[in-house]
Specification:
GO terms for molecular function: isomerase activity. The chain is 16% helix and 32% strand. By secondary structure, it is α+β, with helices and mostly antiparallel strands.
Length: 360
């Protein structure tokens, strides 16, 4: 790898990640992950010797390839690269990085661009779910400038509409609208991202604190850790001690005209906004009678729900139906995001560490 690896660095939604063609990375997962750790600069809390930005939101990777699924144009594998640990996880999706997959597919010639706009059908390899990204391509070229604005990102950019068809997964992994974990009522919901909804005041916080204030609360961190581990077992995810799912989202009354206020943890770092698929799960949870948060939510007429987060809000279209047993199912989920190409070039990974044995 002394010649480097072709890479496109993009902001996708409120995250930033390195996008690669699968053919440019080792096919063997262990070798691929070892290379990505060196590219991103992990493990190191500053990621000073790599592309990572010293935060889970800026230490992400997308691996794209032509899809063998007739329902999709490309396959998208999301990898979360830990900052201070030598860990690369494929146990979750990322809806923000998803926003850049369509433009990347056009940039790399995997999908031909339309003269006005392009739709790219995407299979999310991590879960098998599908999504369609539609974005402007005037004159058959990618367009990143526009007037779409999303909270947590300065300025404006071209809109990217992400639509998620209903999947086969159970919206309620436990089969219940409400469960009790360690004496705390929760709603475990999965509308693209396994998420645990909990009242902020049940964890002795308001839910309106800043992410930094919440992250220094040692008692809260301990409580969140136990909740997440127990929720993972309850949701059929097994031992989640080395993963970032399920997400924990604290709910509080809205303050700025939205439906709900959220604080989401990944897993103990507090998200400065909210992930797309996490927001989809929150919105679905708020649509369920008796779910945690429905008593404090201010739901509008229509399908659009505005979810408040630490740096603004996210609007998401969400509607539910019911299956043959009467349990709720997702009917429609859609959101507008933006993405921007930051650089396209070659990244040079840190050299493989050599055993230390002193000098001769």
């Amino acid at each position: 790898m002394t010649a480097g690896v072709p890479c496109l660095l993009m902001r996708g939604g409120t995250s930033k990640g390195a996008y690669f063609l699968a053919e440019d990375l080792p096919a063997e997962p262990a070798l691929r992950d070892e290379l990505l750790l060196r590219i991103m600069g992990s493990p190191d809390e500053r990621q000073i010797d790599g592309l990572g930005g010293a935060h889970p939101l800026t230490s992400k990777v997308a691996v794209i390839s032509p899809s063998t699924d007739p329902r999709a144009d490309v396959d998208y594998l999301f990898l979360q690269v830990a900052v201070d640990r030598a860990v690369v996880s494929d146990r979750q999706n990322c809806g923000n990085i998803l926003a850049g997959v369509g433009p990347f597919a056009v940039e790399r010639g995997l999908v031909p661009a339309g003269e006005e706009e392009t739709s790219v059908r995407i299979r999310m390899v991590n879960s098998g779910d599908l999504a369609t990204a539609t974005f402007p391509t005037p004159g058959g070229r990618g367009e990143y400038t526009g007037d779409a604005e999303i909270s947590g990102v300065p300025g404006t950019a071209a809109p990217i509409v992400l639509e998620f068809p209903p999947g086969d997964r159970k919206l309620l992994p436990t089969g219940n609208v409400r469960d009790m974990i360690d004496g705390i009522p929760v709603t475990c919901v999965d509308n693209g991202m396994p998420t645990v909804l909990v009242h902020a005041d049940d964890l002795k916080v308001t839910g309106h604190e800043s992410p930094k204030e919440l992250e220094v609360d040692a008692a809260l961190a301990d409580r969140l850790r136990e909740l997440r581990l127990n929720a993972g077992e309850l949701m059929g995810l097994g031992d989640v001690s080395d993963t970032t799912v399920p997400k924990l989202t604290l709910l509080a009354p809205p303050r700025h005209g939205g439906a709900i206020t959220t604080r989401t943890f990944i897993p103990v770092r507090c998200h400065t906004s909210i992930g797309v698929l996490g927001a989809a799960s929150v919105a679905a949870g708020l649509r369920m009678a008796g779910g945690v948060g429905t008593d404090i939510a201010r739901l509008p007429d229509g399908d659009r729900i505005r979810i408040e987060h630490p740096t603004g809000f996210l609007d998401i279209e969400s509607s539910l139906g019911t299956d043959t047993t009467g349990l709720p199912t997702a009917r429609r989920t859609a959101v507008v995001r933006t993405a921007r190409k930051i650089f396209d070039g070659t990244v040079f990974p840190r050299a493989v560490a050599r055993p230390t044995g002193g000098h001769r």
